[in-house]
Amino acid sequence: MANGARYNSYQYETSPRKIQPEYELPQEEIQKQKKHTSAKIKNKKKTKLKVRLRPKAKVVLYIALGFAVLFAISYQNSLITESFNEKEALKKDLATIEKENEQLKVNIENSLNLTNIEQLAKERLGMQKLDNSQKVYVSLDKKDYVQSATEEVIIEEEKTLWDRIIEILTQSIR
Predict the structure, then answer these.
(1) Contact residues for 33 (Cβ-Cβ < 8 A; gap 6+)
(2) Fewer beta carbons below 10 Å: N end or C end of the chain?
(3) Under 8 Å between Cβ of 128 and 122
């Protein structure tokens, strides 16, 4: 009855009672099992760490990959911006050079009038206007000195080999 009372009685503890096995293992086998279970526990801890690290490593890898892509895009944009700024600077230089060129053209056209040329010739080169004594008049006969060609010029074109053969055959038939 003690056994029946044992199962029917109220237990105050929160953990269930341990049932004693009918057969007990020798101490050597118990120690082997403990070593084996401790090795399993260590392996489980390692695999749990690996399992925990793998998702973290993937996240870190994806974040690093994202930063690398963003860095590449921003670097490319900076190169584009730099070349655009260089192009704009060259456009500004071209505009100023074209403006200077137009101003020089206007200055040249203004300085090419006849009075300016005469003044420069007198001042720099020491030239003077011709007097009547320096002028020489030449009289020519009314005869025309151009002669027309009396001979007829025949220009022969180079003939191909086939044209020459056909010409020889047509001459021998006549």
Answers:
(1) 25
(2) C
(3) yes
